[in-house]
Amino acid sequence: MKRAVILYLLCLSLACQTTAQKVGLTSNGTQNYVLRPSDFIQVDIFQEADLHRKTRIEADGVVHLVLIKPFRIAGMTISDAQQEIARRYYVEDFLQSPEVSVSVLEFSPRKVSVLGEVARSGFVMIPPDRKLMLVEAITSAGGFTGLAQKKEVQLKRTDKSGKIQVYTINAEDITRGTGGRDVELIDGDIITVPDHRSKVNVLGQVNRPGFVAIPSDRKLTLVEAISAAGGFTRLARRTKVQLKRTDNQGRPQTMEINVDSIMRESKTRDIELRDGDIINIPERLT
Asked: Which domains occur in the chain, in start order?
């Protein structure tokens, strides 16, 4: 039995080397591509035409192949998937030393949104076989317009827990090479390039975190800015809203404001905002 297992592993290793050459041709050099749900793949086994299969990976990452039991393939590289398929055909007593070839016929779309002061707002696709960086995404969207505020590019990203994280990035420093590191983008990222107009930044527990422009003909108050950002979420701690601003001497200041009280009693105590103010709405304690 031990001898048979060693023989199988040796054959599998040789098979994978042969397959790697095939995949380099059939999948256009994407052997290190990590398979994702909705990828449409083709599985071939050398001299086993009946086991040929074209199929789409299910939303839960599972693949259904001929004879062997369904299993989760999403998250594996093509090379790993080939070895796992070969192993399963052997373990389930169908084939002794299968030579498996996996190729991707249609990649699951991955994209980011580039909005605001770029020439062509819209989606930018992430290449299937390499990274997409922030500066490249902006370039793919036609580059900055003349009104772009390059020092305050905003990146919104949803983390694994479903929370929206907002980052402000100095893209001008990145493009000039004078400081800052380019940022690798992931599926679903939203890049917003603001303009030079006066604005405030509303972050935290609001429905649409991001920049809110100050109208040129009137004031903008704290409650109005929160409303323009979609209003509070149900998790917002309205009594502990933070307002951060820089005073006339360039010193940072932080104020804690009970917005619930302002909204309930009277808006006469509402606070006028200034260009560059940052409003952060924390999550309430549960």
From this structure: 2-106 (3.30.1950.10), 109-196 (3.10.560.10), 197-286 (3.10.560.10)
Does the pLDDT value for residue 129 go beyond 60?
yes
**pLDDT value at residue 17:** 38
Distance from the Cα of residue 204 to its chain's centroid:
19
Report CA-CA distances (Å) from 224 to 145, 207, 252, 255: 28, 14, 23, 17
Query: For 15-46, how does the pLDDT look when each residue is reduced to its tens digit (9 = 90+)?
Result: 433 333 233 334 444 677 889 888 999 999 99
Q: What are phi and psi of 284, to 5 degrees?
A: -70, 150
| HSE-up (13 A, CA, CB side) for residue 283 | 5
* Span 200-227, pLDDT tens digits: 999 999 999 988 988 877 889 999 999 9
Decide if pLDDT at 103 tops 60: yes
DSSP per position, 24-81: HHHTTT-TTPBP-TT-EEEEEETT-GGG-EEEEPPTTSEE--SSSPPEE-TT-BHHHH
Q: Of how many residues is the chain composed? A: 286
Token pair in block for residue 132:
């997409």
Residue type, 121: S
**CA 250/CA 109 separation, integer angstroms:** 46
**Model pTM?**
0.58
d(C-alpha 264, C-alpha 184), whole Å: 43
